[in-house]
Amino acid sequence: MSDLSVSIGKLMLKNPIMPASGTFGAELTPLLDINRLGALVPKSVTVSARDGNPSPRVCETSASMINSIGIQSKGIDDYVTRLLPEYRKFSPPLIASISGETIQEYETLAARLDAQPDVAALELNISCPNLRTNGQAFGMSAEATAQLVRTVRAVTDKTVIVKLTPNVTRIQDIAQAAEHAGADALTVANTFLAMAIDSETRKPRIGNLMGGLSGAAVKPLVVRLIYQVHQATRLPIIGSGGVMNGQDAIEMILAGASAVQVGTATFLQPNAMTTIIDDIDDYLNRHQIEHLTDLIGQVDLS
Amino acid sequence: MKLFNAKIIANHPINARYWHMILDASMLDEHVAPGQFFHLQCGDAQQNPLRRPLSVFHYHQASATLEFLYLVKGIGTQQMTQRRPGDYMNLIGPLGRGFTLPEQGALLLIARGVGVATLHALAREARAQNKTVYVLLSARTANDLLTAGALEEIGAVVHTVTDQEGTSDLEQVRPLLEQLIHAEKIGALYSCGSRRLSKLAQDLAEKYHLKGELAIEAHMACGIGDCYACACTIRSQGQLKTARVCSDGPVFPIEQVVIQ
């Protein structure tokens, strides 16, 4: 047995595998040994209840899928009074993903969740492509990112993870803005703004026209983003996008990720995350590596 | 609900558009209610990551067989037709809420297209409990009138209408259904597969104060209630609410469904 533990800010995870927000819930209990995961990330929560976007909300594309759920949320009251107690039965630390329409909403959510001992860390979803026209998000501006992270930083001592959008010209600029504003870690990255049209009906295949692309097809793009962010900041990185197996996870770790989120793969196989943990363990044994952390950023450029 | 592999016993075309698959479901250790569905991996999961939700056509507990009647519509169902007996299908299920039978009276099933697959399972369950079952089967052509024979064999009374014969429009279907409601002590209405017919079933259920249920379809990702990809709007206690087709449905009380 190798040591798979990694640290993300103040969090110590027993292994680097966690779900990507929006793809996970307690409903997986009969199909997945949830307590084996490194951390748990329930779906993003907003201040008030939200209904989400028109259907169809998902479509399949080559080795990928597009989703435009639009953050269906029951609001923060439900999250605190119902969801957090429900998650007490699970042992991994809970990372609360939060989303808002204004910086003040992020502040409200962060302050509220800071008081919750069940929340181990916050992931600021400043990058959902499905909330505004043309996928506009706070994470597209270094200035807005900095202001938002500073505001949240001022109201919580918990680990703050900023989930970046890949839909930018230079992700390094946004990563550095988040780092200077006090972020503890970065998730790289949210989904890629995408669109698909049914050639028979000429209709968009997503009710909201555009959505976020995820799945195996985006992995090389995300590996590149992780590498670029790792070169530009000192913050621990949680890689996210297209990981289907242990080899994919190791690839992200070699590019600079400390931990890895799994989303679309769970739709293929509900127990994908535990299979990936086993794959990583096998890899470390096979390469006689004692600590997973020895691999972070160790792509061989010689 | 469980994740399992099931061996294909048979997989063959019924007509130009529909196929029938029979699986060995001896792995399954729980009851499968009519209206419930399974989430199937259809082929190359790397290339086509989303499973396809298929409602149960027939689950035969004694022989441990699970049958699906599927419309070959897109890449997923096309890949299903390539699977051969002896191959394995990967499934999650049974999923969702199924139909409930009326305490009294006969069942009136109103089906079109592949909706008949879902209602066929209900007809079998009702006949097994000795309830009287009437079926209105609507299709484009006589060739698309699936399972009319099988339904008659189990003792359902089947009325067929088709676009081809010009008998399937609402002006003709409505009086036919109203006549059945008047004459046959109908206790509940069920519909699946057509927005038009579902709306009609909803009107009739309201007008005649009948229990009713609709099974609805949606594009899904997780299939178990986590991702909200399949959300639909329902009317509950005078308010519009969002529900998940996969876990709150796919069968809903008829008065709750908001038909777009």
Automatic annotation (TrEMBL), chain A:
Residues 4-283 form the Dihydroorotate dehydrogenase catalytic domain. Its cofactor is FMN. It is found in: Cytoplasm. PROSITE patterns: DHODEHASE_1 (PS00911), DHODEHASE_2 (PS00912). Binds 1 FMN per subunit. SUPFAM superfamilies: FMN-linked oxidoreductases. Its EC number is 1.3.-.-. GO terms for molecular function: dihydroorotate dehydrogenase (fumarate) activity; dihydroorotate dehydrogenase (NAD+) activity. Pathway: Pyrimidine metabolism; UMP biosynthesis via de novo pathway; orotate from (S)-dihydroorotate (NAD(+) route): step 1/1. FMN binds at residues 21, 43-44, 125, 163, 215, 241-242, 263-264. It catalyses: (S)-dihydroorotate + A = orotate + AH2; (S)-dihydroorotate + fumarate = orotate + succinate; (S)-dihydroorotate + NAD(+) = orotate + NADH + H(+). It comes from the Bacteria. One of its GO terms (cellular component) is cytoplasm. Heterotetramer of 2 PyrK and 2 PyrD type B subunits. Belongs to the dihydroorotate dehydrogenase family. Type 1 subfamily. Catalyzes the conversion of dihydroorotate to orotate with NAD(+) as electron acceptor. This is Dihydroorotate dehydrogenase. It comes from Sporolactobacillus inulinus CASD.
UniProtKB/TrEMBL annotation, chain B:
Pfam families: DHODB_Fe-S_bind. InterPro entries: Cyt_c3_hydrogenase_gsu, Dihydroorotate_DH_ele_sf, Dihydroorotate_DH_Fe-S-bd, FAD-bd_FR_type, FNR_nucleotide-bd, PyrK_electron_transfer, Riboflavin_synthase-like_b-brl. Its cofactor is [2Fe-2S] cluster; FAD. Binds 1 [2Fe-2S] cluster per subunit. Binds 1 FAD per subunit. GO terms for biological process: pyrimidine nucleotide biosynthetic process. One of its GO terms (molecular function) is 2 iron, 2 sulfur cluster binding. FAD binds at residues 52-55, 76-77. Residues 1-101 form the FAD-binding FR-type domain. Keywords: 2Fe-2S, Electron transport, FAD, Flavoprotein, Iron, Iron-sulfur, Metal-binding, Transport. [2Fe-2S] cluster binds at residues 222, 227, 230, 246. Belongs to the PyrK family. This is FAD-binding FR-type domain-containing protein. It comes from Sporolactobacillus inulinus CASD.
